[in-house]
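Retro notes, item 3 of 5
We never archived the inputs for the potassium ion complex last cycle. Fixing that now. Sequence and ligand:
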Amino acid sequence: MKILSAKQVHEADNFTIQKYGITSDMLMERAADQVFNWIHSRLQGNPIKIHVFCGIGNNGGDGLAVARMLKEHDYNVVVYVVNYSEKRSKDFLINLDRLKERKLWPEFIDENLHLTSIGKDDVVIDAIFGIGLNRDPEPWVVKVLSHINASGAFVLSVDIPSGLFMEQAPSSEENVIKADVVLSFQTPKLSFFLPETASYLNHWELLDIGLDPEFIYNAPTEYQYIGKPEVAALYRPRLKFSHKGTYGHALIVGGSYGKIGAVQLAAKATLTVGAGLVSTYVPACGYMPLQTALPEVMVITDEQNKQISAVEVPEKVNVICLGMGLGLHDDTKIALTNFLKKNKLPLALDADALNLLSANRQLLKLVPEGSVFTPHPKEFERLVGTWSSDFEKLEKAKKFSAQTKSVLVLKGAHTICFYNGVGYINSTGNPGMATGGSGDVLAGMVTGLIAQGYDVLAASVMATYLHGLSADIAVTTIGYEALTASKIIEGIGAAFVELFKREQPQQQGQQQQERAEQ
Ligand SMILES: NC(=O)C1=CN([C@@H]2O[C@H](COP(=O)(O)OP(=O)(O)OC[C@H]3O[C@@H](n4cnc5c(N)ncnc54)[C@H](O)[C@@H]3O)[C@@H](O)[C@H]2O)[C@H](O)CC1
Ligand SMILES: [K+]
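Structure as it came back at the time:
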């Protein structure tokens, strides 16, 4: 799903209005109708007090329209207009008149604040600023936002929490509404996915307001949100007359004394995601544990016992994963340097391979184009230096991917794969994955998909999605705490199956019946 910029959303509005011969206030009515239905289906006429805070732009217009619909259904509504500018939008004014026609008179809030108290059991609808926010709110408006935040009431934000920019960090925490739920129109907003800005919302849902799908399809976007349909479309079916050679031969290079388990996890993940053959190259101390734990995997050992001092690549290997548990020994640095000087195969670079590259930057130029880097934020910082905001981090990530002509898999709560100027934001995963070895599993999965013939971008996006999905499935039975990297590998099969699961016919029947009864 594409993530549009504010400018593109406004263009999509205009395009939709012209193509379907509707007016902008009809589009606003659709948006408000969807928000109202969402609330009404949950509150079911509950007389709880609902405070609707509106701005003076179209987000405020949405709020006024929702307030009218709530009033028409006898909800206990109070409406406020946060009067931060005289430049009221046309559709705000239309909806202000419609509200007054229903004898609902908003309270206007200006610099001489008179703030009505909000009970902690009340509901607030936040429609003060939408995606038109282009500067920090004035101090008195911040006081209104703080009053709402301090109330303890359930806050529902329309489209985006007021005060949150689409593509920029707020300058202060108090400038932004903290929303329990955001009902966002048509496409998610980039700020919903970044650690710094996602903290302003607990949960978001999309409401389809019927913006033209053709416009959205053709819009060039810098970010996409990756869900099941996008990943299912990447899947390459296994062929009936195929054999192990059809699915590639991956080599995992890593391990040092005490860290052979990292290679074990990566190799097992590579196999489990479907690679035809998997070999490992490890220090001699890794021989017994690997041969014992993974009978399917071939093991080549270095002449050194505790760390590798060279890299030997067996014939017919078509992708190499490098770095897990590798350590930073001088022997290993020499091994990496000599290897990179002759290697032409695509690489998946993780963990200490990234740390060695950060400490020896001249080696970066030797990484072949079309490789994959899988850093967590600290490893990425070692590669590119610090950043002042998450948005700057994204720019650095995009630049790094362009300079190396490779995929950058920037790991986090929403892992983002960057390639060719586009960031692909993952939708799966959970906090249980913050556990040792889960990164080794991801690198192994990327490698296993490349081995089978997936291109590097498809392999990175799909591996990231399945890795998170496997964990999401696992936590439904074992909870977050008991999730381990090994459990993520065990669930890869279930994640593949889930990718193609359709609704059960019985459930479909039930839903049809429910619809018929409504
Ligand atoms: N396609 C859709 O998604 C639709 C969305 N709708 C709603 O419209 C808003 C966007 O409306 P817009 O009028 O462009 O912006 P705002 O409501 O956010 O109004 C802001 C308004 O105020 C000015 N401004 C910006 N920052 C400040 C500031 N710090 N202080 C004072 N004034 C400021 C700015 O110039 C604007 O004029 C979207 O979020 C949806 O809620 C439509 O209803 C349907 C289609
Ligand atoms: K809002």
